[in-house]
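S1.2 Input.
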Amino acid sequence: MDKAERRLELLRAARDVFATKGYHAAKVDDIVARAKVAKGTFYLYFPDKRSVFVELVDGLFARLGSAILTVDPRGDIEAQIKHNIRGIVAVLLDDPALTQLLLSFAPGLDPAFATKIRSFYDGVKELLRLSLEQGQQIGIVAPGDTGMYATFTVGALKELFAETTSGDAVRPREQIVDELFRLLEGGYLRIERAQAPAPSKPESPARPKRPASKLR
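S1.3 Output.
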């Protein structure tokens, strides 16, 4: 196994241990036991468990950023927005262990841990805010405070994924995509207005022709 694969194996093991035991109760011994490597091998790649957690969170954030594409107003706007929602859902549900860990943390136990969690959510909100600002520029997002819009959206996503990753409410992914789209469509999205054809200018009434003067 090469170094890149070994590092990835340690990250996967840490993610699973964090999800089952919680970040604070997890120990490096648990991670190496899960990965089936010597403890010294762990320290060849990471100085401590916090650095593993930081890399896991940063990786998830990078995947979320890649999932949000700029909407082209010349194309099918609804399809593009659903594509973005589908990408976000896939990133979070394809890694339920890490998603659940991010959703269930208890602040106060480890200030550095809590700071990393907050920075993750702040980063996600900023991604959404910038995307919503672009939407306002092309007319598919209602005027208003995009920062607040992003906060509302992240709050809805957190509650939804808290239920989904805990197993309390398992729903098909496409249903999640459709319902999230309907929620946004009933809120700040303005797709129909953006895709409506521009009203044609009324034709100027034809001027009546002046009667030809009669020759006398």
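S1.4 Remarks. The domain at 1-47 is CATH 1.10.10.60 (Arc Repressor Mutant, subunit A).
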